[in-house]
Amino acid sequence: MESSQVKAHRVSSQLLSLAGCLRVFLLPTLILTLAAMGRPVPRQILLCNVCPMQLKDKSCSNDFTSECQPNEHCGTSKGYFGSVHILTAQGCLTPDLCNSTHPLIYRGVNYNVTYRCCCSDQCNHLLAPTMHPC
């Protein structure tokens, strides 16, 4: 018959062995899970058509694209002189510009530029009938 001291030692050793296994296998998983829970979900980086500000009648092939910053959307910019659409541009826009209008001096002329955004790759094609907002 085993003495109670030997049984206690054996049970204690088994518990320490189990605790060691838990520490080795579960602790890193628990730490990584908790760390990931506090992090923001990474945003999609969009690929957008790019065309510099120019007269709207000038051709701009959609051969040029750019990766936006994580906080940017694809967008188009349209410059108006009075109510006449004169200028057009494409590229990446920050969310604060989306659905806004701002004055711009381009080649010495004052324009009002409207900014429209969309949130999928190359959604800012100039010939798109409608851009679906974000």
From TrEMBL:
**Is Membrane tagged as a keyword?**
yes
Give compartment(s). Answer: Cell membrane
Coarsely, its chief localization is membrane
Instruction: Report TM segments.
Output: none
GO CC field: plasma membrane; side of membrane
Q: Is the Signal keyword given for this protein? A: yes
What domain of life is recorded for the organism? Answer: Eukaryota
Q: What is this protein called?
A: Uncharacterized protein
- PANTHER family according to UniProt: SPERM ACROSOME MEMBRANE-ASSOCIATED PROTEIN 4
User: Which InterPro entries does the record associate with it?
Assistant: Snake_toxin-like_sf (IPR045860), SPACA4/Bouncer (IPR046354)
Membrane topology qualifier: Lipid-anchor; GPI-anchor
Alphabetically sorted, this entry's keywords are: Cell membrane, Disulfide bond, Glycoprotein, GPI-anchor, Lipoprotein, Membrane, Signal
